[in-house]
Amino acid sequence: MPIMSSDDFSLHTDECEQVGDGMPTSNLPDEVTSIDDLECDCWKQFDSLEEFT
Fold first, then answer.
1. DSSP state for residue 36 in the 8-state scheme
2. Tens-place pLDDT, residues 1-43
């Protein structure tokens, strides 16, 4: 489940240490169409969005 950081609204994985305070989201936003759209390094463990969802 992705987590949205309350600091800058960036998206992170459950295990990410950089998320800080955050709110779990049930889905990624529609604007995210590939894993490259996600900025945090925590997403590098996935090759594609399909692998995460």
1. G
2. 899 998 888 999 988 988 878 899 988 899 999 999 999 999 9
Taking the C-alpha atoms of residue 19 and residue 29, their distance in angstroms, rounded to an integer, is 17
Of 25, 38, 8, whose CA–CA distance to 49 is shortest?
Answer: 38
Q: What phi, psi does 45 have (nearest 5°)?
A: -75, -10
Structure tokens that stand for 12 in this block: 């992170």
Domain boundaries, the chain: 3-52
Total-model pTM: 0.82
Tokens 């990410």 sit on residue: 16
